[in-house]
Amino acid sequence: MAKGMYLEHYLDSIEGLPCELQRNFSLMEDLDNRTEEKKTEISELASEYVAKVRNLASEERAQHLTKIENAYNKCKEYSDDKVQLAMQIYEMVDKHIRRLDADLARFENDLQEKLDTGSMDSSDEKQSRKDKNIKDKRGSHGRDKKGSDQDSPKQKKTKAGANISESLLAMHPSDVLDMPVDPNEPTYCLCSQVSYGEMIGCDNSDCPVEWFHFACVGLATKPKGKWYCPRCTQEMRKK
User: Fold this and answer.
1) Residue 19, annotated ligand binder?
2) Per-residue confidence (pLDDT) for residue 143, from 0 to 100
3) Which of 171, 172, 154 is nearest to 163 (CA)?
């Protein structure tokens, strides 16, 4: 259930709460006023009884005491009613608090499930991109490479619509190494870093590295004719 649905349902459930609370508080206020009136009445009856008790007959004393007792009983009745109203208010509010706690718990569970699902999807997507990059890199072995940047990683990105800024091309390799790198980005060259700046492809179709940064192999411009990387050159000399 969406967050908005939880909120909407909860607001619907407490829509009548203010009116119910106001009604109960009004009743409690009325009981307070009645209790105060009875307390005043009891005080007056007690004062009158004390003042006249010596002159009252036994029957009159009993009647007077009965009036005081009835007034006390009425005060107790009002107090009990106030307690009942207070308990109703407490239970009313507590019910909505429990409802809110339950909705929050359900919402947190739903949110956690979505986060877990999103994390799994993200991991699968990253693994899929990584597998694709590995396949692309393996598929590039055996291609006919020329001593130029034809079909280089930089041009592949350009064909896909990505533009490399002039500032990146002018960067020193050490500056590029300090930049954050996508862990799924394929790496090249002797430095085992991602594609950047000018690159050249080794003309050995079996070259395990394939592409090299100009600066890493000591080039400033594109060489004419075929070009072989230092590793392949060394291997060919051994033969």
Assistant:
1) no
2) 46
3) 154
207 is annotated as contributing to ligand binding: yes
Rounded to whole angstroms, the Cα distance separating 141 from 207 reads: 7
Which sign does the torsion angle of CA 18, 23, 25, 26 carry?
positive
- Report the C-alpha gap between 238 and 24 in whole angstroms: 100
| Model pTM above 0.85 | no
Residue-range domain boundaries for the chain? 3-138, 153-238
* Average pLDDT taken over every residue of the chain: 76
User: Is 232 annotated as ligand-binding?
Assistant: yes
Domain 153-238 has CATH 3.30.450.20: no
Distance of alpha carbon 215 from alpha carbon 66, whole angstroms: 112
Question: According to the annotation, is 191 in a ligand binding site?
Answer: yes
Contact 188, 209 (CB under 8 A): yes
User: Do 198 and 226 contact (CB within 8 A), yes or no?
Assistant: no
Q: Are the C-beta atoms of 24 and 85 separated by less than 8 Å?
A: yes
Q: Are 229 and 199 in contact (CB under 8 A)?
A: no
DSSP 146-179: -SS-TT-HHHHHHHTT----HHHHT--HHHHHTS
Cα–chain center distance at 184 = 26
pLDDT digits (tens, 9 = 90+) for 156-197: 444 434 444 444 444 444 454 455 555 667 888 888 888 878
Radius of gyration of the chain (CA): 45
Task: Check if the beta carbon of residue 147 is closer than 8 Å to that of residue 214.
Answer: no
Q: Model confidence over 136-151: pLDDT tens digits?
A: 555 544 444 444 444 5
Tell me the C-alpha distance between 201 and 226, whole Å.
10
